[in-house]
Write a structure and sequence with these properties.
Layout: H1 3-19, E1 48-54, H2 59-72, E2 77-80, H3 82-85, H4 89-97, E3 101-104, H5 117-135, H6 151-157, E4 161-162, H7 176-186, E5 191-196, H8 200-215, E6 219-220, H9 223-229, E7 239-240
Parallel strand pairs: 1-2, 1-5, 1-6, 2-3, 4-7
Bound molecules: nickel (II) ion.
Length: 249
């Protein structure tokens, strides 16, 4: 993806976010944490944070990431692209087997607000079918490329739509030191961090962030666990996002 497209998309998303300033925080914002929901007392009390990775898998970089997460006992969420799953089926099964969550990021990284019904089903339902054939289940959350969507997207999704709340724009400079600083200074309880597991620098960022935030008491969970620990059930077609505190009203 060209950087200007991503910058444009980010700008549009920021505008949409401001326009929706009345939208509340994550649904779990007001709810107390329930450790029993994600494994009982062996799970430490929060704060909880979810690492999410878009655009993969990419064998060289995703493998290093999975190794690092396994060493740290950390689960993350991967919003995968269908065409990148091709040839990396064993990597997907490893993710699933090691406790990570797998979600959808379209088959060819298409902007969902630009698609008609046939296009939408080709991008999302085809990926769901690919993942179902591989993993034996049908429920996968959806993250729209660029965060772009419209009412039709929500109506067609047949999945909870999950955005993010901490975005270091790792694609823009591949600078681990800067990205780690942005993330560790801005992450709070309940945040969802956006990175891309297709870049070596982003993999290094993720592992440094885990080490830094775990030392501060954060517990890393999947997006599903982030809902579960607050006793919330994600709804199909609902967009889950978090606004900056200044726009919370
Ligand atoms: Ni993407």
């Amino acid at each position: 993806m060209s950087n200007w497209k991503k910058r444009l998309a980010a700008g549009v998303l920021a505008f949409i976010t401001l326009a929706l300033a009345a939208v509340p925080y994550w649904p779990w914002e007001e709810a107390p944490a329930d450790r029993e929901a994600i494994g009982g007392a062996k799970i430490p009390a929060g704060p909880y944070v979810a690492l999410t990775f878009d655009d993969g898998p990419r064998a060289a970089t995703t493998t290093v990431l999975l190794d690092g997460l396994a060493q740290r006992g950390v689960h993350a969420t991967f919003f995968v692209i269908g065409e990148n799953v091709e040839g990396n089926e064993l990597l997907l099964q490893r993710m699933e087997g090691e406790g990570h969550q797998i979600g959808m990021h379209t088959y060819h990284h298409k902007s969902l607000d630009q698609l008609n019904a046939a296009g939408f089903y080709a991008e999302v339902d085809s990926l769901r079918a690919t993942l179902t054939a591989l993993l034996g289940r049908e429920e996968f959350m959806l993250r729209p490329p660029y965060g772009m969507m419209n009412a039709a997207t929500q109506a067609r999704a047949a999945a909870p739509i999950v955005l993010w709340s901490v975005d270091p724009e790792d694609w823009s400079d591949r600078d681990t030191a800067r990205q780690v600083e942005v993330i560790t200074e801005n992450t709070q309880d309940g945040d969802i961090i956006l990175l891309h597991d297709i870049y070596p620098a982003s993999v290094e960022t993720a592992l440094q962030v885990v080490d830094t935030l775990m030392a501060k008491g954060f517990h890393f969970v999947t997006v599903e666990e982030l809902f579960a620990v607050r006793g919330k059930t994600p709804e199909n077609g609902t967009v889950y996002r978090r606004l900056p505190p200044s726009s919370a009203g």
